[in-house]
Structure formats: structure tokens, C-alpha cells
Amino acid sequence: MTWALLVVDGQHAAISQPVLGRIQQLERAFRQTGERVYQVESMAVDQLAPLSPVGGTLYRCGTDAFSGSGLQRHLQDAGISCLVICGSGSDSAIDASVRSALYRGFDVIVASDAHQAYPRGSLSAQAIAEHHNQLLAELVIPGRVLEVLPSEEIIDIVRDEPVLAQAVGW
């Protein structure tokens, strides 16, 4: 299995320091083990510098990371079959990117504590992010694997990849 980290809207100025810290820890773990990291940003933030410039940043023109970004071609060219997804917009860009990746034939691991929502009405950002973790954990796409795991567990798996298949039920 070949996998990569996908950071969606990881440069959003409103990302909390704890979430940003976990995104950066995931980036470091993936890079240190020679795994690929893809960053996809909304066209609205294209003037910002990437968190980690290695490999560059792709820009999307829709809600999900695949929309107009060329991401699918990059992943297919690299032979990627599984994505670890984190970033901002739990109830928008993250949710849409997870679903799009699954429907495009990728397995997905959602970093449950490395994505952030923004408050909406009486709903807190934390409540929205937790709700989407629950929704995604219950999603079933025949033939695809979807796991929702904390970033610390993902980092442990990255460092000991041979146990990945067992950890996510393959």
C-alpha cells in the first residue's frame, strides 16, 4: 500500500494552535519516513505561503480537494492508494474531500484531532468536528476502507508501517 498525507486548507488563518500543531506533526512524520505530503488550498488563500513548501501547493476551485486541483492525477501518478486527511473545514472541505476520495477509489484515514470546523450558530467548532468524526466513522463505501483515528496513533503507524494493514483492518 502506498499512502500520503493530504492537508486541506491547512493555511487557514483561523486554525487553532493545537490543531495546527497536530497537522505539522503529521507532516513531519510523513516527510521523515519518505512519504508524500500534498497540500490543497482554496483559491481564496492562494497568496499565503505553504506550511511546508516541499512539493508545492495545489489549488482547488470547489469544496473538495479534488475539484479543479489536479490532485487525482498527482496521486495516481505516484501510485497512492490511501490518504490520511487533515486540515480545516470539518463540515465542508474535509467532509467533501473524504467522500470524494472514497468515491474515486482511495482508502482514507481521517486524522480525528487534526481537522477543525468553525462555529455555526449555537454549534461550537469542537461539536461540529466531533459530529463529523462520528458521521465519517459510520460511512460505508463497499470496497473501500475508512478509518477515523487520532493523529498520535497515525504517527505511530507511519513510523511502523508494517502494522498499518492490521491497524486499519485490511
TrEMBL record:
It comes from the Bacteria. This is Isochorismatase-like domain-containing protein. Keywords: Hydrolase. Gene3D superfamilies: Isochorismatase-like. It comes from Chitinimonas prasina. Residues 46-129 form the Isochorismatase-like domain. SUPFAM superfamilies: Isochorismatase-like hydrolases (SSF52499).
